Amino acid sequence: MVKSKFRKLKMNKAPGIDLIGTRFLIELLEVISDWVIKLYNKTLRTCDIPDDWKLANVTSVFKKGKKT
Q1: Which of these, 5, 9, 29, 67, could form a disulfide with 22 (CB 3.0-4.6 Å)?
Q2: pLDDT at 38 over 80
Q3: pLDDT at 68 over 80
């Protein structure tokens, strides 16, 4: 399931705050998928999500219409 989700990522999306792009994730899918599964399962078992995972940089982007 994890591999199929990674394969569905859109290549033209910008990288996140960690600067890891989707191309990197897809190309290294076989290497990182087991690690991602273990990490996800561990957080489910312990019910403890690291504070770093709860942070996000959100920037609003004006697209069209009136700015006011």
Answers
A1: 9
A2: yes
A3: no
Ordered alpha helix ranges (H), 1-68: 2-7, 22-27, 29-46
Give which of 35, 14, 15, 11 is closest to 23, Cα–Cα: 11
Kindly provide the b/e burial profile for residues 28-52, where b requires at least 16 CB atoms within 10 angstroms of the residue's own CB: eeeebbeeeeeeeeeeeeeeeeeee
Both tokens of 26, joined, read 């897809």
Local confidence band at 24 (pLDDT 50, 70, 90 cut-offs): confident
Averaged confidence pLDDT in the chain: 83
Residue 2 · residue 36 · CB < 8 Å: yes
Residue 11 corresponds to which amino acid? M
